[in-house]
Amino acid sequence: MNKKVVIGMSGGVDSSVAAYLLKKQGYEVTGIMMRLAPDVKEYEECETSCCSLSAVDDARKVADTLEIPFYVMNFKEEFNNDVIKYFVSEYMKGRTPNPCIACNKHIKFDSFLRKSKAIGADYVATGHYARIEKVGDRYLLKKAADTKKDQSYVLYGLTQEQLAHTLMPCSKYSKEEIREIALKIGLKVYNKKDSQEICFIPDNDHGKFIEKYTGEKLKEGNFVDKNGNVLGRHKGIVYYTIGQRKGLNLALGRPVFVVDINPYSNEVVIGDEKDIFKTELIASKLNFIPFDNLNEEMEVEAKIRYSSKPCKAKIIPLEKGKVKVEFEEKQRAITRGQSVVFYKGDLVIGGGIIEKIL
Is 311 a catalytic residue? Predict the structure, then answer.
């Protein structure tokens, strides 16, 4: 009897071709569209959102072409509780959240996996670009063959149970090859643009979203220098992140940058570019993949954001489930709330949330 796979379909080219590849490999494939964002007209009409009505229509048409069953599954409550609330809370604390990582951890590879297994699936699948391999009794996560599209950074939180029941068939291909396959098999989404990063904020104005979500107007406050001297007024701490230069509207006669955000005093600290380069941080909420716990110092390459290049670093275990990360070279704009992810070559060692910059 063929193994059953439930694939999360977004209406994009990656998940569409992933469904085709799985069927070609002999799996019994069912397509599921996860409805995540609230029932708000602006989300449903936004063509770049994976939560739009056009995305549902695209996914259904792909499923019809591939002759696989297709359903829409409601995850709006889970998404609100585990992604949107977290997103708003982090910004209000002066941190910079990563909703994609939260969505992967709580929705796509937790709630979605549990519901899929409950309806008889052996695996869930996605269109992510990352490799899952089993070595001995351990499942490992590795970078995709196409390093330009590699998404292992946002998947570092996967557990052994989740890795054991997840398939990512796009991982062996480049994005160009995936589009060529889609064109060859007649999928109209072959040239569809990738969805935007924050699917529940179509206009990219997260400040306006937070005001609407909380029902409270964002509080203006002071820009200050490192000595506490007032330099001007800001429009709300949620609009700023460490390392930011543009949009400050400060005429100080020299380039200045956000070097810190203090939610308690509602102040945004301004400094020079040299002030945003640091070599050490503390991370918590850790997940390791080749092993359960880090018991001794380890040499790794580490990334402090999705788009950054891995740099040599040492990770040192601390008490209370934290690690200290020491980089060989200064890193630009290490940011609280973002994730630091550890690698050994193409192997993902694990990662955690940046809590403190030293």
Answer: no
